[in-house]
Amino acid sequence: MTGTTREIRTFSEDEELVSQRRRQIVDCAIQVFVRNGYQKTRMSDIARACGISKGLLYHYVSCKEDVLYLVAHDQAEGTIKGFGALQEQCKEMSPTDALLEYIRFYYKVVHDTQDYQVFLNQLAALLPRADRRILFDADRFALEILQEILERGVKSREFEIEDLTITAHNILLLGRTWADRRWFLARRYTFGQYLDIQTRAILRAIRPQAPAGTAGAD
Amino acid sequence: MTGTTREIRTFSEDEELVSQRRRQIVDCAIQVFVRNGYQKTRMSDIARACGISKGLLYHYVSCKEDVLYLVAHDQAEGTIKGFGALQEQCKEMSPTDALLEYIRFYYKVVHDTQDYQVFLNQLAALLPRADRRILFDADRFALEILQEILERGVKSREFEIEDLTITAHNILLLGRTWADRRWFLARRYTFGQYLDIQTRAILRAIRPQAPAGTAGAD
Amino acid sequence: MTGTTREIRTFSEDEELVSQRRRQIVDCAIQVFVRNGYQKTRMSDIARACGISKGLLYHYVSCKEDVLYLVAHDQAEGTIKGFGALQEQCKEMSPTDALLEYIRFYYKVVHDTQDYQVFLNQLAALLPRADRRILFDADRFALEILQEILERGVKSREFEIEDLTITAHNILLLGRTWADRRWFLARRYTFGQYLDIQTRAILRAIRPQAPAGTAGAD
Amino acid sequence: MTGTTREIRTFSEDEELVSQRRRQIVDCAIQVFVRNGYQKTRMSDIARACGISKGLLYHYVSCKEDVLYLVAHDQAEGTIKGFGALQEQCKEMSPTDALLEYIRFYYKVVHDTQDYQVFLNQLAALLPRADRRILFDADRFALEILQEILERGVKSREFEIEDLTITAHNILLLGRTWADRRWFLARRYTFGQYLDIQTRAILRAIRPQAPAGTAGAD
DNA sequence: CATGAATGAGGTTTCATTCAT
DNA sequence: TATGAATGAAACCTCATTCAT
Fold first, then answer.
1. Where residue D48 sits, what CATH number does that domain have?
2. CB contact under 8 A, B201 and A139
3. Residues 144 to 173 of C: which have CB under 8 A from any D CB?
4. Higher-pLDDT residue of D7, B112
5. How many angstroms separate the CA atoms of D98 and D118, rounded?
6. What pLDDT, on a 0 to 100 scale, did the predictor assign at position D155?
7. Is B103 helix (H, G, I), strand (E, B) or coil?
8. A216 in reach of chain B (CB within 8 A)
């Protein structure tokens, strides 16, 4: 699903240790990247943030770009895991409930990782073209789950949607907006308000138009 | 409107020439930035793209960051000019027509400058905090105009909108999406299709709900 | 005494190593500065003279000017240390002996570091105004010690001096002259001759004039 | 006397104009050199100080070093001219009067051109070895005249001097000191005081020791 | 004669990466 | 395993000098 996990050179043979260190590296590197940007971050900054030496950092990573890849990979994996779990939960729900759950879940994630989201925008541009795939794949996965929900809703006549793909896109993208435009939005709305308003707007946009007359009891 | 234009050192006193050269620098630099990213672009790359020497580049700009600023400033100015003109045009139109015009205009701009739009995402992160303002100001300006249109529509009962600001935001952001997600969207839709679908989705979302029954003759 | 030691950025935290490397840098840099002048000396020249890489040089120094400062600081410190020791030695001596010792010491230092002395002339001009202080302070220290000796001599009637400060100045300056004018002096005198002649001239100038008649048996 | 005047390329054939311009260049360049040092002064600084364009500057000078040479040459010429005139004046005077006149003259020159004198210290180091000659020649000329005076005084028994050359040197050098050490001296003495004190010290040092008894007729 | 736009060699500084300990 | 001193390629920037106008 995630595509090939590119092999990253390591000097250690203790896989346990390697993945534990890399976990640490990812967590710390993200923070520094978010704060200073990838390019302005030096390997020594990353090492210091991890509390290890530059030399040791190079035991678990062969170059700076590897760190970026690890971050991207981690993000993608996290997304897929998160949405995978969500998918399970939603299976039993009605389309509308599932959608509400989906929105609440995703928008919350965005809210909780605002700074990170902003950095994600740059991530794709920084990665070599080949490595971008893992990000795209994760995105696509999140979209598919949303699309499934929408599809079920369309089938059950709870939703009326012209174009599933684009609708799913719109719903997702407007979630990200909370992070991208927080310099504007956070001054005017709390996250709760934003979530409510967007949720209602989404529902309104896909709720069947009342051809008969008994439309939406809001 | 755009805030203070930061002064950039130049060695020439011929203002005409300076602004002409800077125009050239901005135009060429954007292309290289878009292609390679800001950090991977060397001053000599920019100079070569302009067809001038590194030395001459430094006659019109005091450091690499100045180039970035010029690009941002140019973008902001262009946005403001473009939307200013649009505003004039829309004044006489009905809210719906104005909105349609607005959408067509903005989405077209995004489409025509796709690569540039992608770079713009990084621009804010690259600029020192103080200089970001000019980008925000431009964005805010585009929003205001859209909000005016929506407001007129609400007054005239052509639109029914819960939250003007967020609706305006949504409309704008979904335009950008065409550039941000073109790796996904462009495979499935032509620009024309995308524009049509989003336009309809927007209208549908703000069209007054049929309180009676004669709702959507689509 | 020397005023504040300006902090110089280093990447190493091993103080021992830092000061050892800086010692090395100062010693080598002086030689190159003396030979080629500060401005014509490139950082890579200094690095090569030290037998280290340009990069490592920047571990112990943040810019070229820092090297200059280190040199000046070292010189000032050396001066103060040298004259401090001299002061101790002279305490027990008679004023005349102390003066002779002082002259011999200082003129010898100048002789042994001729090239360096010539460079010192430029040093003050090269340093940013604030950093010149350390040189002035060192000079002032050397002067004070000389003045003390002269004062003792005046009290004991061994010397007869109109203006202590200026006399001390004169004695000092004529020592430097050996370095400044070596293009002229070294062709006509050996250092020993010069030292003798100047010593006699100095003594003669401050020896009490025979108000009676029993003056100088030269 | 001054050695060969090195030929400096010019594009102009109007000798009158050339020497007039060079006069201007020397006068202005000195000021900038004194203020900022030779190396930190850019050709454009010199041009601006002269009120001409960089291009025109290069009509009268072929490179930056030429400017330095012109300055040195001018200084040497001025020295020689000044001391030449002095020599004439002194011819008729008694040795003592001549010496007093000499001292007054030279110390005054130093006082009037303090900043310049400080720069002169660097000049020799900046000039290519060959060009230093003109400075040395000028110095030697000033020395010779002083020596002549001293010699006459020795012959007439007005002075009693062990070593003519070194004494002359000492007298000259202590004049320069007023400029070199003005950061120290000017705080404690006016120029007049300094001149008086040094004059007396000099006279005292060369005044015949009273083997008889008739010592100081001051 | 006069200008200042244009060039590019060369210096300073940074930092990813290596390697001896 | 862990360190951080050491390297050097490569980027930024300056400024003496040229030359078209």
1. 1.10.10.60
2. no
3. 162-163, 165-167, 169-170, 173
4. B112
5. 27
6. 96
7. helix
8. yes
The reply to whether B16 falls in a domain is yes
| Inside any domain, residue D37 | yes
d(CA D143, CA D146): 5
* Spatial separation of the C-alpha atoms in residues A210 and B216, rounded to whole Å: 8
Q: Does B191 touch chain A (CB under 8 A)?
A: no
Ramachandran sector of residue C184 (left: φ over 0; alpha: ψ -120 to 50; beta: rest): alpha
User: Do C169 and D177 make contact, defined as CB atoms within 8 angstroms?
Assistant: yes
Q: Is the distance from CB of C136 to CB of D183 less than 8 angstroms?
A: yes
Burial class (CB in 10 A: 0-12, 13-18, 19+), A167: buried
The residue segments making up the domain with residue A53 are: 9-62
Specify whether D83 is located in the same domain as D142: yes
Structure tokens at D185: 């001296």
| Nearest residue of C to residue D212, measured between CA atoms | C213
- Chain-wide mean pLDDT for chain A? 91
Q: Which residue of B has its CA nearest to A183?
A: B136
| CB nearest B162 (choices: A184, A194, A197) | A197
Nucleotide nearest to A54 (CA to C1'): F4
Note whether A139 contacts B: Cβ–Cβ < 8 A. Answer: yes
The shortest C-alpha distance from A19 to chain B (Å) reads 30
User: In D, which residues are within 8 Å of C170 by CB distance?
Assistant: 170, 174, 177, 198, 201
Residue B140 in tokens: 């805010």
- Judged against a pLDDT cut of 80, whether residue B217 lies above it is answered with no
- Considering only the beta carbons, identify the residue of D118, D173, D213 that sits closest to C174: D173
CB-CB neighbors (< 8 A) of A212 in chain B: 213
Number of alpha carbons in the 13 Å side-chain half-sphere of residue A182: 16
pLDDT tens for residues C146-173? Answer: 999 999 999 999 999 999 999 999 999 9
User: Residue C6: which pLDDT band, with cuts at 50, 70 and 90?
Assistant: confident
pLDDT at C217 over 50: no
Residues A132 and A175 in one domain: yes
Q: Do chains C and B touch (3 or more CB pairs under 8 A)?
A: no
B43-102 residues touching A, CB cutoff 8 A: none
Residues B193 and B86 in one domain: yes
Whether residues B79 and B55 share a domain: the answer is: no
- DSSP letter for each residue of D203-216: HHHHSPP-SSS---
Q: What is the pLDDT of residues B23-46, one digit of tens each?
A: 999 999 999 999 999 999 999 999
**Residues C187 and C112 occupy one common structural domain:** yes
Q: How far is Cα A205 from Cα B204, in angstroms, rounded to an integer? A: 7
At residue B5, the pLDDT reads: 72
**Closest to B71 (Cα-Cα) out of B28, B13, B19:** B28
Query: What domain count does chain C have?
Result: 2
| CB B52 under 7 Å to nucleic chain E | yes
Q: How many angstroms separate the CA atoms of A120 and A154, rounded?
A: 32
Q: List chains adjacent to chain A, taking adjacency as at least 3 C-beta pairs closer than 8 Å.
A: B
pLDDT for A212 beyond 90? no
SS3 A187: coil
Q: Is D199 on the interface with C (CB under 8 A)?
A: no
Q: Would you give per-residue pLDDT tens digits along chain D (218 residues)?
A: 444 567 888 888 888 889 999 999 999 999 999 999 999 999 999 999 999 999 999 999 999 999 999 999 999 999 999 999 999 999 999 999 999 999 999 999 999 999 889 898 889 889 988 899 999 999 999 999 999 999 999 999 999 999 999 999 999 999 999 999 998 999 999 999 999 999 999 998 898 876 544 444 44
Confidence of residue C207 (pLDDT cuts 50, 70, 90): confident
Query: Do A80 and A175 have their domain in common?
Result: yes
Q: What is the pLDDT of residue A15?
A: 86
Q: Which of A64, A120, A122 to mutate to test the interface with B (most CBs of B within 10 A)?
A: A122
Min mean pLDDT across C105-109, C110-114, D206-210 is at D206-210
